[in-house]
Each structure stands twice: as C-alpha cells, then as structure tokens.
Design a protein that fits this description.
Length: 167
C-alpha cells in the first residue's frame, strides 16, 4: 500500500513512502530540519489553517529514523535475507580511511612488515599521527541527548561508529 505505520502495536497514523523518501532527500541535499519539513507538510495539507493539522512531529522523527535504518539495510544487501549483521557491515568502503593491509603497513608476529607499497618507500610521518579536533562553532552541541538512557541505538556499531558496549 506504500504506507509506513507510525506505531507497530496500534497503528493510527501512517506516512507514505514518498513522504519519507522526500524527507530523506530534503534532509540530505538541502539540510532541511525535521521541524521545517513537518511545517511544510502542514502548509501543504492546508495552507490557510496549518495550525489545525494534528501534531505528528514526534512520529515523523521516530519513523524517519526507522526508515533511514531500513534503507541502509536494503542498500547493503540485508533487505531480503536474514543474514547476521556484523560490526561495520552498514558502513561504506572508504579508500582514504586507514585500512590494514590496504593502505596501512601491518606488523607481523615475527616483527616483519606486510605492506602493499614498494619496499623502498617509507610511510609518511602523518600516517600514524593523532589529531584532536574541537567543534569551534559548537554546531555538534545539539547532538547531546537530553535523556541518554532513553536513546535506542539502531546501528550500534554496524555503521561508522563503534558500538555502545565497546565504547
């Protein structure tokens, strides 16, 4: 039917697949915030009286998160099979990131090196350096949860970030 329920136990509200895909695209390409997108939906529903549209903002936030997770599963080949997800399975391959055996020299147990570059080339000094970065514009401050115990991890180490248990 092309509808995604806002609740799985007693669904009373549903979002169309088209709205959810449109929100993901607006969020990605235009940086549209969920509140702005929801206000746009209210105005599309009734331009004269948008305040009369029932408030389903919280439902949109929850469903958009679940929709993005389902899309990631589908894009990475977990959509139609019940394969076990391992850490990092939902992350894209990044050729610029340090990858042991690909662009990082590995040390063997005997002390020798396994490398994928010519033996006469030295590793650059910046390759193993540490860099600490602070958010100077304080734009990441809103990422801190008001109630961290209420947060539910959908990815938990299967994407780009390490899992909660390992962290």
């Amino acid at each position: 039917m092309g509808l995604f329920p806002a609740s799985f136990s007693q669904p009373k509200t549903a979002f169309t697949f088209e709205v959810l895909d449109n929100f993901l695209l607006d969020n990605l390409e235009c940086g549209t915030l969920a509140m702005n997108y929801y206000n746009k939906l209210r105005r599309i529903t009734t331009a004269v009286f948008p305040h009369l549209v029932p408030d389903r903002y919280r439902e949109l936030m929850r469903v958009a998160r679940q929709w993005r997770h389902l899309k990631l599963l589908k894009w990475n080949g977990f959509g139609h099979e019940s394969k076990e997800l391992k850490p990092g399975d939902l992350a894209l391959f990044c050729p610029a990131c340090p990858q042991p055996g690909i662009n990082v020299t590995l040390l063997t147990a005997e002390g020798g090196e396994i490398t994928n570059t010519a033996p006469d080339l030295e590793a650059p000094s910046w390759l193993y350096s540490r860099s600490l970065v602070m958010d100077g514009n304080f734009k990441a401050e809103h990422m801190h949860a008001a109630n961290p115990l209420d947060e539910v991890a959908l990815m938990d180490g299967r994407g780009f970030m390490v899992g909660d248990g390992l962290y």
